[in-house]
Amino acid sequence: MPLILDEAIPYLENMIYLPMVLTILEKDRTIFESGPFKLKRPYITIVEGATKQVQKELKETRVY
């Protein structure tokens, strides 16, 4: 009998990986804001959208 349920494994993985993804997205955002890009806003918008999605998934994981 396994100690961790099969349904809990994805949530456990999310608790490990999603905070790392948030850290990377924040670093990417600072790079885009200070970098020599002509069109910064589209990249920043994509990173913001990804950050919101990751935060939403992390919240669902914490609720579980």
Model description:
This protein is an all-alpha fold and 64 residues long. The protein is built from two helices and no strands. It has helices at 9-34, 40-63. Helix 1 runs antiparallel to helix 2 (40-63). The longest helix has 26 residues, at 9-34. The two termini are 22 Å apart.
Structural class of the helices, strands and pairings? Answer: mainly alpha
Described by the principal axes of the CA atoms, the overall outline is: elongated
Query: What is the chain-wise order of helices and strands?
Result: HH
Number of strands: 0
Quaternary organization: single chain
- Give the count of structural domains: 1
The percent of residues in helical segments reads: over 70%
Quote the average pLDDT.
92
Uncertain spans: none
End-to-end Cα distance: 22 Å
Whole-angstrom Rg: 16 Å
**Share in β-strands:** under 5%
Largest sheet: none
How many helices in DSSP terms? 2
InterPro entries: YhjD-like
